[in-house]
Amino acid sequence: MQYPPIIDLHAHSTASDGTYAPAEVAELAKKIGLSAIALTDHDTIDGLEEFQKTGKELGMETIAGIEFAALWKKHHRPEIHIVGLGFNPDHPVLLERMKDIKKSRDIRNQKMCEKLSSLGLHITLEEVAANAGGEIITRAHFANVLLQKGYIAKKEDAFSRYISTGLPGYVEREFLTPELCIRTIKEAGGAAILAHPTLYGLSPEQIEELCMELIPYGLDGVECQYSTYSPAETKMITAIAEKLHLLPSGGSDFHGKNKPNIHLGSGKSNLAIPYRFWEELKKRTK
Prior knowledge:
The chain is of the alpha/beta class. It has ten helices and eight strands.
């Protein structure tokens, strides 16, 4: 029996918060028989060169991707994510945006070190960067250092006592606007996708409102298949996409051991994303 080609358009590596190296993501995709795989690390394209080089060696279609975080300033001001697919990783507009994000991230991380030190939790940015080991620094790396230095008894204490929203060691990150995320993707020649809209605490009507706001900016599609969707949610998002003439996309949101119950390509055994999704989205790239 000939099975239809299956893909995954949402996966992460050690370039952001996954546990598989970019090359390993491509290798795993090949091993499990995917026809195409996109690497969509958070706010970075650092893993794409290794990822696509390995894909080429394996004869595997590897798609340049990114997952931008933005703030939607309506309702409860949710953080939303915009996935870019099929863009030129060397485009100057994209590279400039990466510099802006890194600068903003560095300033935030330094401020968090200063806040924690003012509380008697003396840590340096160099210590946190060493713990990150070349990866993007996240709050998890701050928690690791606090634990290593004996300031907390367990990693969770960092989040419950110091580095979550509203707590004394927390510094709010600076977000791009949804318009800037989409414009950057489009200028770099990619397709722009609204990622996992059920995760934002919005009603179906609010999700539709969000999509309608993003369409004039250049939104191409929405994730209609995703690991945590229920059948009813898949049906709801697909209906919104069809109503608004948005293209369907889909992905597992694979993170390796950081999300051990989510598998590349199949999610929670509920995914079989058809290659035709990428065929249609590819028409929006240049």
